[in-house]
Amino acid sequence: MDNNFLVIENISKSFGDNKVLENINLNISKSEFFGLLGSSGSGKTTLLRILGGFEKPDTGRVILDGTDITNLEPFDRPLNYMFQSYALFPHLNVFNNLAFGIKENFTQKEIEINVRDIAKLLSIEHLLNRRIKQLSGGEQQRVALGRCLIKKPKLLLLDEPLAALDKKLRSKTQLELTTLQKKLKITFVFVTHDQEEAMSLSDRMAIMKNGLILECSSPEEIYENPKSLYTANFIGIANIIEIYKKDENFYSDDLGINFKLNKELKNTKTNILLRPEKIKIQSINDLKTSAFNSFSGEILEKSYLGSFTRYEIKINNMIISVLDQNFNSNSNYNFPKGEKVICSWESESIKVLED
Amino acid sequence: MKNKLFEKYFVFSPYFWLVIFFFIPLAIIFKISISVSEWGMPPYQDIFLFDNGFKINTTFENYVYIFSDYYYIGSFINSLILALISTIFCLLIGFPLAFYIATSNIRLRNILLVLVVIPFWSSFLLRVYAWKIILQNNGILNVILLNLGITSEPLQLLYNQYAVIMGIVYTYLPLMILPLYGYLNKFDLNLIEASKDLGLNRFKTFFKVILPLSVPGIVAGSLLVFIPVVGEFIIPEMLGGSDRLYYGKILWEEFFVNRNWPGASALAFSGIIILVLPIVIFQILYSRWSQKNEI
After folding, report:
1. How far apart are the first and last CA of chain B?
2. What's the pLDDT tens digit per position in B116-140?
């Protein structure tokens, strides 16, 4: 696979004194679904707008399929941009919105065929004569997508593609979007602040913070083996425990227990990550607490989430989150509030954070 | 309860205003326009006579008189052309300005808006008079041109139709900019970016996206300039020459110089009908069109 399809090289951008992007480097492969995830102000949208040609970077280059497009105007770039607000033209109906970008180079007949094809692909054939105001949010999203895809772009940029949809529609559209992308094999780069959305859509994703890319990897890798404290906290629920070297082992003051790591550490003091679903929870009667990788605590809070139950367990000075899968419908399986329990985990589940 | 009553009638106050200051004067003008003129004060006869029984004393002579003389029709046409040209210039200058103001950041926007409105704070007459000083033969503009050697003798800039157009465009420009700004202010700038992203350059984006979506603002601004310019009297009087006669001036002369009140009223009433009727029809058609197109 050509992993230099889209090359982002040393991109920096400031607005006045405000440094929005600092030396961004990314390589994105052909047909990849790539996510840029960050909270607001992380610079993710600015990066997407630079790719779209709406902002000029202060330094650096953008190379798409071997061509330097850094200084090209948006209308000269072989890519399309789907706006968060969709930016559909209110004075045109759905048909003319879809046909907007191909009217110049196609005959009336070709336009007709192309619009019908794309409408069929997105199941919006019945909407072609509607006005934009008559469409629901989901329908507008499809028209916006169709308006871009009809141009057969090499690269499609999506700014918060699902943010304007309600929750139920969002998960349905997520699935449709991935299916569509795999079918068309167009490279998608999208921006989101929603970590769930980023995880479910992306082949690979980059975590952005204050104009920097902290990590760039597959969602699995980022969730399971985050490098930084920020990423660990940002993606999913994280129990972050500060440990330091004590004799042969590592010790946490907060939990008051020893940790056994299957990895040598450079620092004498570090943070470790323990994901809540990696922790096994058992009744205190079933098991004796051992010296390593387990602790006993008291259930402080409990929330039943259907497939899971989330417990907040207090041990010493710290509260640890645990997600316990509800294997059977026997309610006895759940621990009541105030119950003393034993939590344990595999040594491999402990991830050492670099900073 | 008393307040309720007040509120109820307060809502209708614009209509009272319209009746008192538009329809009643219009009716009076119409009444005078169908009166028989005579020497005296007022210089027309009553339309209802009671001396030898009741008699209605009206005539359409005044209308026949003004419509059979090209002097009147011609001046009205001159005024329509003047209004059209001025509106086009106001639009050409006003649109880019309004667009720039609407798309600039909030601080700059407020400063620019104040600059647009500032001329209203000084007297209209003074402002037009200032142009007279600038444009006259030994005025600032001619002095500059002479000193720069662009011209060897003073140019006749004043007292012609070009000076009139310039004066009108200068005076009426804010009336074009403000409604256009009000409309463009709501313009979603993403639409321009979307158009460019879909392959249309700046020029095509203007004609395919910006212009069609600005139609309501353009219509409002153009009407606000066009209608009063047709009857404009002061600017042609102060800056214009004898090369072209305009409706406003003819009306004034007919009334105050010739003391032909019925004739002047017929002229005024015809003017209003000729101007208002097409605009009312246009507004009805336009509102139907814009409803259909949801702009």
Report:
1. 41
2. 999 888 888 999 999 888 888 888 8
Residue A131 touches partner B, C-beta closer than 8 Å: yes
**Tens digits of residue pLDDT in A306-343:** 888 899 998 888 899 999 888 776 655 678 888 888 88
- Between helices B261-293 and B61-68, what is the axis angle to 10°? 80
For residue A152, what is the nearest residue in chain B, using CA coordinates? B198
Please, are residues A64 and A4 in contact by the beta-carbon 8 Å criterion?
no
Q: Decide: A198 and A192 in contact? Cβ < 8 Å.
A: yes
Fold topology of A6-233: Rossmann fold (3.40.50)
CATH of domain B69-293: 1.10.3720.10
Nearest chain A residue to B211 by CA distance is: A91
Ranges in chain A annotated CATH 2.40.50.100 = 237-353
Contact A90 B196 (CB under 8 A): no
A293/A145 Cα distance (integer angstroms): 50
CATH topology of domain A237-353: OB fold (Dihydrolipoamide Acetyltransferase, E2P) (2.40.50)
pTM for this predicted structure: 0.80
Measured between beta carbons, the chain B residues lying within 8 angstroms of A74 are 193, 196-197
Domain boundaries, chain B: 69-293
Instruction: Say how far apart CA B266 and CA B29 lie, in whole Å.
Output: 8
Say whether B191 and A87 touch across the interface (CB within 8 A): yes
- Residue in chain A closest to B188 (alpha carbons) equals A87
Q: Measured between beta carbons, which residues in chain B are less than 8 angstroms from residue A131?
A: 294
Chain B interface includes A16 (CB < 8 A): no
